[in-house]
Give the backbone structure.
Amino acid sequence: MAAPDSPICECRNLNVVFGGRPALEDVSLAINANEVVAILGPSGCGKSTLLRALVGLLKPTTGQVLAHGQPLKGIHPGISIVFQNFALYPWLTVRENIQVALNGLGLDPQTAAARIAKCIDMVGLDGSEEAYPKELSGGMKQRVGIARALARGPELLCMDEPFSALDVFTAESLRSEVYRLWTGDEGKAANSNGSPAGNGSTGGNGKGVAGGGSHSGTGLRSIMMITHIIEEAVFLADRIVVMGTKPGHIRQIIANTVPHPRNYQSPQFLGLVQRLHDIIVSEHLPETPAAAEAGAGANLLACEPVPSVNLGEVFGLMEILRDNGGGMDVFRLDGLTDYDFGHTLAVVKVGEMLDFLDTPKNRVVLTPLGAKFLDADINGRKALLNQQLQKLGIFRYVVQMLKEAKQKRLPQEIVQEELVIRLPTEDVEALTKTIISWGRFAELLGYSADTDEIYLDQAQVAEV
């Protein structure tokens, strides 16, 4: 029998492998009652995979998944999920979409109608009950998704990047709504001493619920949210789980002690944001670069594979740096882009791999080679990029394969098979597309869509 104070869900030494590639490695995490947990990390680190394993949507390769201290069998009975793509039935009205969540609960019509009405009121959908999804904005669609999840009466609400498909202003509005639902008037049932119960909750803020209680009268006891936005995690979460990549793993779990009500500009808020920025930057832009390959016989794939970044993004970022004196703080630079922070780091990483950028401490600076690139005409840029790409191990490897091939060309499938063998943890399909895109711009490689072949550019063939 489950202990009353056991975690709502928990994984121990979790490992998930897809097609021979590890997606999660040795992950242990417990979600307790009366807390908001944010799982924070860049795209591809396994955040959504972890969520799906914790709630029973995905069976782990090895390790344990528990619900209230007992091995989880099937789907966790006490969870609801809000997805980033709304997942509404277009042929059903708002009310009917929410009603779907009540299937199988055995509620009488009066009780079901009252629960639906309460959830509609909680998320501000009054007056739109009979509207169809096509009549709603993105923000309204996600409100329906949240109402539907709450209507189920879950003890744990899981939110998988719920605001990522929305514009900035709508996302911020809904983020504040979720904050209000958790800490505001609907969730004021606190412990007698005015502090929330549950491991990991912020102390002394007068928010939260007593053990066994629920927020908003829905049975909700905790929230687990997937995000790649640091400010979102700091605004909403009591505990922040920072994940690393290749394969996905937990780097740190940080208790959020920023007091409520939370203000984006408060010193405590900004301090925690900076701390999380530093943790993420330390992995993606380490102070000590990987050791350069030595000698002609060195492994051509010893260096890190290239991130899936459009070269135009790198060049645009370099222009921003030049317009700002040649160097900027990475966080200020991120604020001038439309990217999430993880993508900004990936763009900077590519510039650094090409020796066009350097990253001392938390700054990004244009190198003399980067400045030379920006000053060159289009042909000069192509020549310089060609030169730098051939210094990267993965491009040297692909070029060498093509040089040894008949007619200096190979089916894309063959190239991908070779890369899978040597880079089992990478998304080789995305990596191949990146290699082709960069190689084409630099007039290093070519690709034929008709034959699905990768080949050496004519200028490279002439050098062989």
Notes: Confidence is low (pLDDT under 50) at residues 185-213, 288-303. The first strand starts at residue 9 and ends at 18. Residues 234 and 435 are 36 Å apart (CA to CA).
